[in-house]
Write a structure and sequence with these properties.
This protein is α+β, with helices and mostly antiparallel strands. The protein has one helix spanning 21-65; strands at residues 71-77, 85-91, 97-104. It has a three-stranded antiparallel β-sheet with strand order 1-2-3.
Length: 121
């Protein structure tokens, strides 16, 4: 039976001493902070843009389809009538919010209504 020291690939191999536990812990914390510094600004920007887009889209839709409304409100909700995502509410004269429409997980700019076909046959 051969011993691990008898292997020709290991001739001259000198094991490297492991880094102290404190140094490894500091490196791990540094790596975690670096990854967070890369990810967090993107998440904050995405949430900010989605929030502004939802507010503007909701305001345009409410102004077009509910001219009697005094305002609008967009909220991100997990359990909502329109499913998870941004939800649009219209406000009446007493500032009570009523559900208007779902805007989806990623709100988009509003689309103009399709023009009615005025051609006659």
């Amino acid at each position: 039976m051969s011993q691990p020291d008898d292997e020709p690939e290991l001739v001259g191999f000198v094991p490297i001493e492991r880094k102290p536990a404190k140094r490894r812990r500091i490196m791990r914390v540094f790596v975690i902070l670096a990854i967070a510094a890369l990810v967090v600004p993107g998440v904050i920007t995405t949430i900010s843009v989605a929030s502004r887009t939802a507010e503007r889209t909701c305001a345009i839709y409410v102004a077009h389809y509910r001219p009697d409304a005094v305002g609008s409100s967009a909220r991100f909700e997990i359990f909502a009538p329109g499913g998870p995502g941004w939800q649009c509410y219209w406000l009446d004269s007493e500032e009570h919010a009523s559900y208007f429409a779902p805007l989806g997980l990623i709100p988009t700019t509003p689309r103009a209504p399709e023009p009615a076909d005025t051609t006659q046959s």
